[in-house]
Amino acid sequence: FNVLKQLVYKHPNRAPVVFHFFPWIGSAVVYGMKPYEFFNENREKYGDVFAFVLLGRVMTVCLGPKGHEFVFNSKLQDVSAEEAYSHLTTPVFGEGVVYDCPNHRLMEQKKFAKTALSKDAFISYVPKIVEEIKNYFKTSPYYYNNDSKKLSGQVSVVESQSQITIFTASRTLLGDEVRQKLNTDFAQLYSDLDKGFTPINFVFPHLPLPIYWKRDAAQQKISSTYMEVISKRRQEGNVDPTQDLIGSLMVNATYKDGVRMTDQHIANLLIGILMGGQHTSASTSAWALLHLGCRPDLIEALYEEQVKVSGKNGHELNPLTYDSLQEMPLLTNTIKETLRLHSPLHSIFRKVMNPLPVPNTNYIVPRGHYVLVSPGVTMMSDDYFKNASHFEPRRWEDPNSVPGATGAKDDSIDYGFGAVSKGVSSPYLPFGGGRHRCIGEQFAYVQLGTILATFIREFKWVTVNGKVPEVDFESMVTLPKSPALIQWVKRDYSN
Ligand code: HEM
User: Fold this and answer.
1) Could you tell me where the DSSP H helices lie in 342-425?
2) Backbone angles phi, psi at 487, to 5 degrees
3) Beta pairing, strands 459-463 & 49-54
């Protein structure tokens, strides 16, 4: 009956629905395994706007820059991110924050984080990130340590970059107290919480499964620990908004109507913001290392850039600083190019709250359906980027070669603090656009730039089979398929 209905009946004002055999399940399997192939095949059949059934939901896909503009700039009363995401996020972040509160509260919560994501804060973060990575190299079994002076080895970048991201983000955004706890059993709680942050939550957020019990216990213990840190700092009169995110929230977190965020809500927001940066940055640095592992020419050019900008003191390069990172265009363009080919989020959703006409079509998306935008499709399309599938950071040296593309240095970025941000019709939007735009873009560039520069200074490397691995679409972000190994050798500073 479902098949017949699809063949015979076409709603006049609805986007064409991708054919599927099983009602409710719809296109879940093809979409879930290879979303970009699914989008591109159906784009060829139907154009930039089409719909598909995903586990009982109807998703209207809006591709291309016009799709970006339509979804990211839709009015608050018409589309809702909280209705689309809260199943997934509230059990993990906790209550009262991000998508478990009205949107105007989220807009203010994003502003409260601003001081910790400012230039002054970044200046103090860079040496801390360098220290964390070097310590990781010393203690991780994958890398050398001072005793054995291991000079070469193999490492799975999926594992190493996830750990490096947790350590560097915790040290900078959460401060020394929380970072020290990661050397204890506390680290297991992060892993328990993380395992409960999976795409299954979209459908079954509260199944009676051990992973969910562990997730809930971890959420409680982690948030209590953050609350203890907050009250200890308060007792000690240590309240500095530029110190880290905890300081920033302790000082700034009073809503415009005078309501103060409770410590529980601050703790939950800390979890939410850290989670926003964890998988996204970890996957980006893993992909960057893998692409560079196939391009020894770029590794050497990046090393030359380090030498040119930082200069040498004897055999050693001078320490990396925030200011020096700003003078390293090849490094910045390597991150930008990695994000073009590997946008960590392949799909961004909103639930439609009022019948929503799609511009330049006669389609109306009904209330209760979803709209889905995928900037990754556009970023990997030859229509917008010459030789799009090729990893070439130098393409960004000529900004005119990529019309309308915005990046880290774009002044039009307003973090989504305003009603709408500019630039939402750009073909290049790895950080989204509009009111839900990422607040972590600049931090991500500082963190990723410091991580990559430190790798470049310490090692040379190649991917183990000479190829960049395929994409694993089954987790929350677009990760390289494990084991994703690189073979590294320590740089020889004596020449
Ligand atoms: C939102 C990507 C790093 C915190 C977003 C969105 C995207 C994105 C696409 C928009 C989601 C939507 O519209 O539904 C990325 C990428 C990153 C990154 C590619 C790194 C390479 C970070 C970091 C942080 C962070 C480091 C925290 C320090 C957030 C927050 C939001 C957000 C709080 C706002 C959610 C909202 O308003 O609904 N990010 N992100 N992100 N991101 Fe990031």
Assistant:
1) 375-379
2) -105, 120
3) unpaired
Query: Is the CB–ligand 1 distance for residue 293 below 6 Å?
Result: no
Q: In the prediction, which pLDDT does 142 show?
A: 77
Q: What is the DSSP letter of 320?
A: P
DSSP 8-state secondary structure symbol assigned to residue 238: -
pTM: 0.95
pLDDT digits (tens, 9 = 90+) for 74-105: 999 999 999 999 989 999 999 999 999 999 99
Burial (Cβ within 10 Å: 0-12, 13-18, ≥19) of residue 315: exposed
Question: What's the pLDDT score for residue 6?
Answer: 73
Among 122, 166, 280, 371, say which to mutate for ligand 1: greatest number of ligand atoms within 8 Å of CB.
280
Q: What is the three-class DSSP state of 154?
A: strand
Cis peptide before 483 (omega within 30 of 0): yes
Among 493, 487, 489, which residue's Cα sits nearest to residue 294? 487
Residues 6+ apart with CB under 8 A from 169: 274, 277, 278, 281, 447
**Is residue 257 packed enough to be buried (19+ CB in 10 Å), middle (13-18) or exposed (0-12)?**
exposed
Contact 399, 386 (CB under 8 A): no
Annotate 403-435 with b (16+ C-beta within 10 A) or e (fewer).
eebbbbeeeebebbeeebbbbbbbbbbbbbbbb
Q: How far apart are CA 375 and CA 339, in angstroms?
A: 11
Q: Which residues pair with 372 in a beta bridge?
A: 61, 349
Is the predicted pLDDT of residue 146 greater than 70, yes or no? no
Interface confidence, given as ipTM, is 0.99
pLDDT band per the 50, 70, 90 thresholds, residue 39: very high
Question: In this structure, what DSSP letter does residue 171 have?
Answer: I
DSSP string, 316-370: EEPPP-HHHHHT-HHHHHHHHHHHHH--S-S-EEEEE-S-EEPTTSS-EEPTT-E
- Among 424, 376, 379, 384, residue whose Cα is nearest residue 401: 384
* pLDDT at position 145: 63
Between CA 116 and CA 119 the distance in angstroms is: 9
242 C-alpha to ligand 1 centroid (Å): 21
Q: How far is the CA of 440 from the centre of ligand 1 (A)?
A: 6
Mean of the pLDDT values across residues 396-421?
50
- Cα(408) to centroid of ligand 1, in Å? 13
Q: What pLDDT, on a 0 to 100 scale, did the predictor assign at position 411?
A: 38
Mean of the per-residue pLDDT values of the chain = 91
pLDDT above 60 (res 2):
yes
Cα distance between residue 2 and residue 311, in whole Å: 68
Sequence-ordered list of residues with C-beta below 8 angstroms from that of 303, at least 6 positions apart, any chain: 456, 457, 491
Determine the residue type at 261. M
Report how far residue 312's alpha carbon sits from residue 332's, in angstroms, rounded to the nearest whole number.
21
**CA-to-CA dists, residue 422 to 112, 179, 206, 484, angstroms:** 21, 36, 38, 37
Ligand 1 centroid from CA 469, angstroms:
25
